[in-house]
Amino acid sequence: MPKTENHPADLTAEFQALMQKIEANWPISPSGIWNSSSIRQLSRYLHDFTRRCEETGQLTLLDLITEIDEMTDAVIDSNSPPSDQQIDTLNESLVRLKDHVSNSTRVDPKPSDQVSPFDLLYLPHGTDESDPIAQAIEVQPWRHRTLASLDELSTTLSQEGAKVALIDVAYLDQDPLDQTLKSFGKNKNRAQTELLFISEHGNMETRLSVMRTGARHFFTKPINTDDLIDTIEAQINPRTVPRHRVLIVEDDESQANFAAKLLQKSGMETLAIYNPLSVIEGVTQFQPDLILMDLYMPGADGIELTRLIRDREETQAIPIVFLSGENDPEKKLLALYAGADDFLTKPVRPQQLLATVNTRIERAKNICTGAARQLTDPMTGLPTRRQLLSQIDLMLSESGTYRSILVCCLDDSHDEVIKNETRDAFLNRVVNAIKPLLRHDDTLARSGNLSLAILFQRGQEHEVEQLGEAVYSEIFQVLDGTDHAKPGIGIALIDSTTGGAHEQLGHAESSARFAYRRGVAGYQLYGEAPPASSEPNEQPVEPLPREKFLTALEGGLVTLQEQRYMGRHELSPATIEMIPELEGEANSPYQVAANAGATIEFDRFICEGALQKLGQLVMQGSRGRLIFRQSVQVIKEIDYLDFIKSELRRRQIVGTGLVIEFDLPSLAADLKQARTLIGELTALGISVSLDNFACNETAYKVLAYLEGNAVRPHLSLLKIDSEKIQHIASQIHSLGAEIILPRVEHHGQIGLQWSESADYIQADFAN
Q1: Distance between CA 703 and CA 733 in Å, rounded?
Q2: Are 31 and 19 in contact (CB under 8 A)?
Q3: Is there a cis peptide before residue 222, judged by omega within 30 degrees of 0?
Q4: 551: how many CB neighbours lie within 10 A of its CB?
Q5: How far is it, in rounded angstroms, from Cα 600 to Cα 631?
Q6: Phi, psi values for residue 482, rounded to 5°
Q7: Is the C-alpha dihedral spanning 671, 674, 676, 679 positive or negative?
Q8: Reduced to 3 states, what is the DSSP secondary structure of residue 514?
Q9: Residue 286 neighbours by CB under 8 Å, 6+ apart
C-alpha cells in the first residue's frame, strides 16, 4: 500500500491521540485485574492504528500493534479471562508500544537549532585561586566553564546545556537553584544533566537534601580529586559495559524461557539450566552476574543448591534471587538463611523482576569495586576507620596487657594552623611525625576527617603513658607550639567486657574531645578524672548569665559523658548514664542552668543527646538502656511530651531503652501531675527512675503511687548494715522496681550487701 504524505507534527498528534485511546481502554487494571468490558472498544482502536501504520509506513509500530491485536482477538474468541502470563505479556507489549510511539514520531530539531552542550559546569562557593578542584578540571580535555553565580548557571543551562553540573551544596538552601533545576528538567529537547555536589560537611540532613535533587554523587571535603575526576569522566564519556549475565535455574522449560526472553529484551545475556545437578558446572562456565533460582526441582532443591554455591569462595558474592510460587514465609526465610539475596513470588510482574535483577547486580558490582577503597585512605595511605574497627575487634578476642587505643583529635584546631597548607598535606605532616614513635605491630589509621587513631599493645603501664606524652609532644611541635591550638589526645584501655569495637573506639574519641576542649597538656585516659588545673590564683567563677549559658550549649562546651552500669543478672541489659559536664565550671551543670534561668533548654539538650545515643545503639543492633536526668520543671511544660514524640519520630526509634530520672523530693510538691506525666512516658516505652530515694514507708507509698520503674537510694544509705539493705531491697523489688546504685568515687563507699541486692552497679565496681 502506498505511503501517504503527512506532516511530522500532524502524524505525531494523531498517533499520540490513538495511543491515549488505547491506554484509556486497556482491559487490565494497575493491580492486574482483567476487565473484559472495554476489550472490544480496544480492538477497534487497534484496527485504526494498524491501518494508519500501513498508510504511513511505520513498520515497527505495525508489527507491535499486530502482535497486541492478535492476542486480544484470541482472548475475545476464547470467551475467558487470560492467564497471568498472558496479562504480563500484554502489559509488556503496551509499554513497548508507548516507547515506540514516542520514538518513531519524535520531531528532531533542525541542525541549526542544536547547541553543543558543555561537558561540565562548575559552581563553587566563592572564589579561590588555589581551589584544587578547579585546578584538576583545567587540565582535562573537557569543554567546561567555572561559574560565579546561580544566575549564570541558569542562563548557561537554558542556552547551551551541560552533561554534568558540579555544584557546592551551599546553594541548596537558595530557591533560585531549585527553580533552575525544575525549569531545566521540563526542557525535553535537551539531554538530562547529571548533578554532582560537593560539601564541607557530610551530615545526614545535607545528604538527604542532595538526594532529593536527583543527584547521584556527593563528595565531602577533603575531596580526592582523582576520584572526583574519574566520576565526572564516567558521566561525560560513559564507557560501554559488558552485558549482565543471568543464570536461570528452573526445571520448567516454559517458565525458564519466559524469564529468559524478558531479560534478553532488556539487553541481558542468559543461560537456562533445567537440570539442577548441573548448576555448579553452569556457574563455573557461564560466570553469571546473578542466579535466578527456582525453589522446588527434582534431584536438588534451590536451598540446597544455594548452600553449595555459597560454600565456594569464588561464588560467594554472586547474588541469588529465588523465583517461586511458594508463599510459605518459613520456606522464604530458609532460602534467605541459606544465602539468597531476595525472594520473588510467582506470578511476578516483568517490571518487578527486571528491577530486582538490575538492582542486585549493580549493587554487587559496586560492593566488589568499592571493597578495596574502604580499607585504605587514599589521602594518607593509612587504614580507614572500617579497617581500624576490624583490627580492634580482633584485639578484643586476644589476651594481652595494656591493649590500648590512642586517638588524636585535630578537628577544631586546624583552621588557624593549616593556613595556606591543604588539609591533606597538614595531616600527612602529622602522620610523618607520629610514625617514628610506633612499633612494627602498632596500627596507625585515619579515624576521621582530621583525626588519627593508634591501636597498640604494651607490656607496662608506663609505656602507655610514654606513648601518649610522646604523641602529644610531636603533634604540638607540628602545630608550632601554639597554646590556642593544642591537640586533644585520648587513650582508652581495651576492655572486652564493656562493648564491641565501635564502643571501644568511642571511649578513646570522647576522651580526645574532652582533652581538646579542656586544653589538657598530654593525654586524657578514659574513665580517669581530668588533671587539676595548674593555673595560679584561680578566681571563683561567676554564675553564667542565660545568654552565655545558651551559647555554651550551642558551642559544644557542654558534653555528655558516659557512666556504665552492669546488671547482677547475665541477661540484664547494659546501662549507660548520660552525665553532662560544663567546661570551666566546678559547680553542677544542673545548678548552673538553674542559676542562668535555662533549665528547660538544658533538659532538652540532655534529652536530645540521649536520643541521639539511643539511635546509634539501635543502628548498631545493641541491646541497652540509657539513663538521663530531667528537672521537675518538665512536669509542667505543656509541650514536653510532644517534643519527645517528635524526636522519636524524627530519629525513627521508640522509647524502649530510655530511663528518665527525676529527683524524688522535688516531685513531692505535685505528685498528681508527676503521675500523669510518668503514665504518658510509660505509654511511649520510657521508664522512670526516682533519685534520692529515702527507703522509708513514705517513699515506698510514693513509689507505688507513681508506679516508678527504678530507684536510686540516697547516698547516706550506701553504708548501712546488711540486714537493712536486704529489707530495703525486698521492699523495692516487691513494688516491681529495680535498684540502681548512685555514682560514687570509690568502691569502699558501697556496702558489700548492696553489690548483691542492687540490680545495677557501676561497671568499674561490678567485679
Answers
A1: 11
A2: no
A3: yes
A4: 12
A5: 8
A6: -90, 130
A7: negative
A8: helix
A9: 245, 247, 271
Q: Cβ of 160: how many Cβ atoms within 10 Å? A: 15
- Cα diameter, the chain: 111
Q: Please, are residues 46 and 71 in contact by the beta-carbon 8 Å criterion?
A: no
Amino acid occupying residue 430: V
Q: In what order do the strands lie in the sheet with 194-199?
A: 144-146, 118-123, 162-168, 194-199, 217-220
Q: Are 223 and 262 in contact (CB under 8 A)?
A: no
> 84-104 and 8-24 helices cross at what angle (nearest 10)?
160
Any residues with CB less than 8 A from the CB of 710 and at least 6 apart, and which?
Answer: 659, 687, 688, 689, 690, 737, 738, 739, 740, 759
Q: Where are the extended beta strands (E) located within 469-612?
A: 488-493, 524-525, 558-567, 574-582
Q: What is the b/e burial string over 130-159, where b = at least 16 CB atoms within 10 angstroms of the residue's CB?
A: eeebeeebeeeebebbbbeebeebbebbee
What is the 8-class DSSP label of residue 160?
A: T
Pick from 567, 572, 592: which is nearest to 582 by CA?
592
Backbone phi and psi for residue 726, each to the nearest 5 degrees, phi listed first? -60, -40
Dihedral sign (CA 616, 618, 620, 622): positive
Q: Evaluate the omega torsion of the peptide bond into residue 298 and state whether it is cis, within 30 degrees of 0.
A: no
Q: Residue 541: is it exposed, middle or buried by C-beta count within 10 angstroms (0-12/13-18/19+)?
A: exposed
pLDDT tens profile 548-597: 888 888 777 888 888 888 887 666 677 899 999 887 676 788 888 888 88
E strands, 501-557, where? 524-525
Question: Residue 193 in contact with residue 161, Cβ under 8 Å?
Answer: yes
Q: What is the number of H-type helices and E-type strands within the chain?
A: 28, 23
pLDDT, tens digit (0-9, with 9 covering 90-100), for 432-489: 999 999 999 899 999 887 789 999 999 888 899 999 999 999 998 888 755 556 788 9
DSSP 79-115: TSPPPHHHHHHHHHHHHHHHHHHHHHT--PPPGGG--
d(CA 26, CA 277): 43
SS3 for 748?
A: helix
Omega cis (within 30) before 378: no
Pairing of strands 320-324, 342-345: parallel
List of residues 6+ apart from 616 with CB closer than 8 A: none
- Quote the CA–CA distance of 134 and 663 in Å, as a whole number: 59
3-state SS assignment for residue 716:
helix
Report whether 321 contacts 344 (CB < 8 A). Answer: yes
Q: Which three cell numbers stand for residue 159?
A: 542556552
- Shortest CA distance to 625 belongs to which of 588, 581, 657? 657
Pairwise CA distance, residues 234 & 746, whole Å: 62
Rounded to two decimals, what is the model's pTM? 0.42
